[in-house]
Amino acid sequence: MNELEAELFTSVRKTVGNLRSGHPWVSMDNVELLKSAGMYLKDQSTGEQGITLAGILIFGSELMIQTALPHYRTDAILRRNNLDRYDDRDDIRVNLLRSYERFMQFIAKHLNDKFFLEGDVFKTIIPLTVQDTNQDNEDIRDLLEFCRIPRTRGEMQQFMVLSNQKYYSNR
């Protein structure tokens, strides 16, 4: 259990406590929290108990994750000018909670990038942090979810409630 990031358990307890007063996780120790979330289970074939892959991905240290999943990483790449090369990059190999923070910081760095079209497909770099955009996290999650798949100009204009093409530039 030393390979897990203890401060993340504290953060999760605080978050769930703020969302729902009296949540059982607030008073549980780390192992009880993992068990209640199904992230610490008994292997039926060997009878041994241990942390699941989900527990490693959410609470594990970088070393623990790389040991369990050597190919796990999120490669955040910004391609602005030359699409064969990148202008900025962040190779993220930490747990999912820390990955989210790093990914959001990477995106926030590129907040003021313009929208552009390649053919009829809208492309953009999506910059998202509460401090820089004055949006709440739900708006950010909705935008990220929407931008997971390529969209046409019309779809993006409708989603963003834009009726004027001056917000777009062609490349």
Compute the number of helices. 8
Extended strand count:
8
Number of domains: 2
Largest sheet: spatial strand order: 7-6-5-8
Largest sheet: 4 strands, mixed
Distance between the termini: 51 Å
Written description of the protein model:
The protein is α+β, with helices and mostly antiparallel strands and 171 residues long. It folds into two domains: 6-68, no CATH class; 74-170, no CATH class. 42% of the residues lie in helices and 16% in strands. The protein is built from eight helices and eight strands, in the order H-H-E-E-H-H-E-E-H-E-E-H-H-E-H-E. The chain has helices spanning 6-19, 30-36, 53-59, 62-68, 96-109, 130-133, 137-146, 153-160; strands at residues 40-42, 49-51, 74-78, 88-92, 115-118, 121-123, 151-152, 168-170. The strands form three sheets. Strands 7-6-5-8 form a four-stranded mixed sheet. It starts with 5 loop residues before the first helix and ends with a strand. The model is unreliable at 129-134 (pLDDT under 50).
